[in-house]
Design a protein that fits this description.
The complex is a heterodimer of chains A (about 290) and B (about 350). Chain A is mainly α and about 290 residues long. Chain A has 12 helices and 2 strands. A two-stranded antiparallel sheet of chain A has the order 1-2. In chain B, the strands form 4 sheets. A 6-stranded mixed beta sheet of chain B has the order 6-7-8-3-9-10, with helices on both faces. The chains are: A mainly alpha (about 290), B alpha+beta (about 350).
Chain lengths: ~290, ~350
């Protein structure tokens, strides 16, 4: 049974949750409601007047082929970053869990990239892959690839995926490692006696038992890719070349902040918000049911 | 079916700690061997070495005719029941039991036959086979863990304190079931426990361990009646054996350090005169004398067990317990005298602890 606190004063509990509520209302609900409201208005070029236009902003948006292009870019970006960062993090965590020499140092080093700001991470990768100076660019060229992410959309996408993934691996690694360490050792031993070789042990015992962790990370990573990669994309490609790396959130920023189309940008935010809410609730409703054991 | 042989087995951890120090014994084919000792005595480590979960630092372990030191756990033809059962939580009971067979690529119809056979032996019904481990009670989980072991028809069963997570009543019940099961299957079994009662009741062959070494090996009653050391004497039996310090005065007589004399059977014990000894007396071998003769006993407390009584008091400056059957009335009054038959007295060397 959950132990519940009881308060003699009626107002004290409300007072105690007030700071949290205030933060949520002021920083989350208020901007969100503003976005919804603004999405029904069009502002003039100088931002002095705005007039109510109903669903006009949404209609324009859905008539814009670039918007659908941007959705496609986001989907590719989200799937690539999530899949790659989760699998690499899992591989590293499994290695770390085996109790290698210098485990602590290894773990600590792996966590560092998470502390790097997205834009800084972006700059590091720009340098590494800079067509004429970058070290990795040099290596890739040596392999016979005509490396130029400033011109080639696919290469630009690869670059932002690597940069976004690199940052996320640390975070995923920590959770996977904790998840692995929570699996009782006797289960693995029982499987070893039961005749399962290490690979089979991993896929039949360890991986299924990690599924709650994996599920949680999938949700967190998708949300990360949707929102937190703005700074990174801005630093690395600026959405280019030819909008090849323009994700939904970057388009919001591009159209609203740089393009001055506040109404249209707000309409995009609202849609983005809906997409994330829908994705997350689908995940929680249907996927989570399968991962509890 | 196979015998298990341990030949001067050592386990030293990288830090330098030696958990098992030269253990040798042989479990005959079909035998039920119980390793018993206090926690930290190395018994679980030894079992895990037999299972292949720990490496062997020195010596040899053989299962059947084969030395298995370098053999993987899966190739040793063993099955193990863990203390926490180690059931796979994401699999149904059926899949838990089938897992080992599936790894061996056994055809599915045969798996079904063997699982249902095991389920029948262990009284697990079809509904239970469909459930997940978390939906089972402790006793049922224990049965599934045993089921997982028996479907594989291994040469040796290893049990690592399998009953210690159960409540007292269930523990007694499962203890009997394990014994019956082993009699029926006749599979060589090695069982680790710290509970001396469990050890006494289950074993054909008892191995008492202390601080990484074997103290004594033998049939449970043999160990109970002729303990080879003070440790074995004190470890087996509940309430434990009473010990009194003294010096051998003349053949058949010990003068107790705390005052008083004790007669022993000089035909069985031949200590040198003047030797410092520990005299051991089992609580159930002692009665109270009615005529005021014998060792003085200062009564402190009577525990009523229903099955009998435990009378606690002090003799010659040390604690002493007398176990009386239910038919006897506990004496009243603090000052009592004990009647200790000479053949109830065991003598051990005070310094080495060895039986004299």
């Amino acid at each position: 049974m959950e132990k519940r606190a009881t308060f003699s004063n009626k107002f004290l509990p409300y007072l105690l949750v007030a700071p949290q509520l205030a933060i949520t209302l002021i920083f989350f609900y208020w901007p969100a409601s503003q976005a919804v409201k603004e999405s029904f208005f069009i502002q003039d070029a100088f931002g002095t007047t705005s007039s109510f236009v109903g669903l006009e902003n949404y209609r324009t948006l859905f008539a814009d082929p670039y918007y659908f292009h941007s959705m496609g870019v986001t989907a590719v970006f989200a799937i690539a970053v999530t899949a790659a960062s989760l699998s690499i993090a899992l591989l590293l965590a499994v290695q770390a869990d085996r109790g290698i020499r210098g485990k602590m140092a290894y773990q600590t080093l792996l966590v560092w990239p998470y502390a790097v700001a997205p834009a800084v991470a972006g700059v590091i990768w720009i340098f590494l892959f800079q067509p004429s100076l970058g070290y990795f660019a040099h290596l890739v060229r040596a392999l016979g690839v005509d490396w130029n992410p400033l011109l080639d959309g696919n290469q630009a996408m690869t670059l932002v995926v690597i940069a976004a993934m690199w940052k996320q691996i640390s975070y995923n690694f920590l959770f996977f490692l904790a998840g692995l360490q929570a699996i009782p050792k006797s289960l693995i031993e029982a499987a070893a006696i039961d005749g399962a070789r290490p690979t089979r042990r991993f896929w039949t015992i360890v991986f299924p038992l990690l599924s709650p962790t994996t599920f949680f990370l999938v949700v967190v990573n998708i949300v990360y890719v949707f929102f937190d990669t703005l700074g990174l994309i801005d630093a690395v490609t600026g959405g280019g070349p030819a909008k090849a790396t323009e994700t939904l959130v970057y388009k919001v920023f591009q159209d609203g902040k740089l393009g001055g189309d506040l109404g249209g940008s707000n309409a995009q935010s609202v849609i983005l918000m809906i997409i994330v809410i829908v994705l997350t609730s689908i995940q929680f409703r249907y996927v989570e049911r399968k991962v509890t054991y | 079916m196979a015998s298990v042989l341990l030949d001067r087995v050592f386990k030293t951890y990288p830090g330098g700690f030696t958990a098992v120090k030269g253990v040798s014994f042989a479990v005959p084919d079909g035998g039920f061997c119980v390793l018993v000792g206090p926690s930290g005595c190395g018994k679980s480590t030894l079992l895990r070495m037999i299972a292949g979960l720990e490496t062997i630092s020195d010596g040899a372990i053989s299962i059947g005719d084969r030395v298995v030191n370098k053999v993987e756990p899966m190739d040793r033809d063993i099955a193990m029941v863990f203390q926490n059962y180690a059931l796979y939580p994401h699999m149904s009971v059926y899949d838990n039991m089938a897992y080992g067979l599936r790894n061996l690529k056994t055809p599915e119809p045969e798996i079904r036959a063997r699982v249902s056979e095991a389920a029948k032996i262990l009284e697990l019904d079809d509904d239970m086979l469909k459930r997940k481990p978390r939906q089972l009670s402790g006793g049922q989980r224990q049965r599934v863990a045993m089921g997982r072991a028996i479907v594989r028809k291994p040469a040796v069963f290893l049990f690592d304190e399998p009953l210690s997570n159960l409540d007292a009543k269930l523990r007694v019940q499962m203890r009997i079931e394990i014994r019956k099961l082993q009699r029926r299957l006749k599979t060589t079994s090695i069982y680790v426990t710290h509970d001396q009662l469990e050890a006494m009741t289950l074993a054909d062959m008892l191995v008492v361990m202390n601080a990484g070494r074997v103290e004594q090996v033998g049939a449970p009653l043999e160990l109970y009646e002729r303990p080879a050391s003070v440790f074995v004497a004190g470890f087996l039996g509940s309430p434990p054996m009473n010990f009194l310090d003294g010096i051998v005065e003349k053949p058949g007589r010990v003068r107790l350090t705390g005052g008083g004399e004790l007669a022993y059977d000089a035909a069985h014990f031949g200590p040198p005169l003047g030797a410092e000894v520990k005299a051991g007396v089992r609580p159930e071998r002692v009665t109270f004398s009615n005529d005021g003769s014998g060792l003085p006993f200062a009564l402190e407390l009577v525990e009523e067990l229903g099955l009998g009584q435990l009378v606690h008091g002090r003799v010659a400056g040390g604690d002493f317990t007398v176990a009386l059957p239910a038919s006897h009335n506990a004496p009243s009054g603090e000052a009592q005298h004990l009647a200790i038959p000479a053949d109830a007295v065991h003598l051990f060397d005070t310094k080495t602890g060895a039986r004299l």
